[in-house]
UniProtKB/TrEMBL annotation:
Protein name per the record: Cell division protein FtsX
Domain named FtsX extracellular: residues: 60-158
Pfam families: FtsX, FtsX_ECD
Organism of derivation: Anaerofilum hominis
Subcellular location: Cell membrane
PANTHER family listed in its UniProt record: CELL DIVISION PROTEIN FTSX
Amino acid sequence: MSFSGFKYLTGQGLHNLTRNKLMSIASIGVLTACLVITGIAALLSVNVGNFVDYLGAQNKVIVYMQPNADEASIQAADEAIGAMPNILGYTYVDKDQAIEEMQGWMSDGDGESYGELLEPYKGDGNPLLASFRVTVDDLTQIDATVDQLKALPGLYSVDAPSDLAGTLVSLKNTVNIAGWGLVAVLAVVSLVVISNTIRITVFARRKEINIMKFVGATNGFIRLPFLVEGTAIGLISAAVAFGLVSGAYLGVLEAVSRSGTGLLSNLYFTLLSYRAVWAPLLIGFVASGAVLGGFGSAASVRKHLKV
């Protein structure tokens, strides 16, 4: 096919958008809505995953050592923890550090502190246990990691937030399944809408198409304008959806950043920045719009044209 022929057929495909204005607008509107919901679901899934990982990192596994654990046992435990898989990081807190932390917790926040009550327990009278505070990498493997920690030399006990970890993992999995399930459903809806739009165009031009076939037009020559029309619908929808989702996401980031303190303040630091999401979002929208538009057109033409 010559360039002039390709240019002509592309122009015909774009002209089809204006021939069926109402259906084109309806298709763009429906596909835009589908892409917007898909984008929101994807961003929600990714950010919920980040937030769950953040909460998991805040809930450490505490490994308490025996009261009479010597330096050799502590050193052996330190080396064993460092060699374990699924360990993101860990710190050692000796008895003196533990009681100093407790004194800090006993402050009432008004400049007064009841930590002085613990002064007699410092030194040899310190009843607290030395411990390792371990952050696991994969919450789904926390039970296996706890079993390994229980085999450490000089161990007294292991305090692990296993129930919370299970809840967080379930939350993350539920959001992922629901989000991507919604994406699949909306993709099917988009294909149906675009296919129906192209089907109307095919029906309106059925006489012209029969004449083209009669004079020897190839299958590709007949199909190309419809593929261009469907792809154009997809790309226009992608551009509109990208603008809407970008504006909404920037608004959410701005609102959360102004929340001050509390849970929302912590949430802000787990949200992906717009700089990190705009490129994948744009590529995803453009690719999805073009693919859905092209496939919707191809399905309609293949079914209703006997070429």
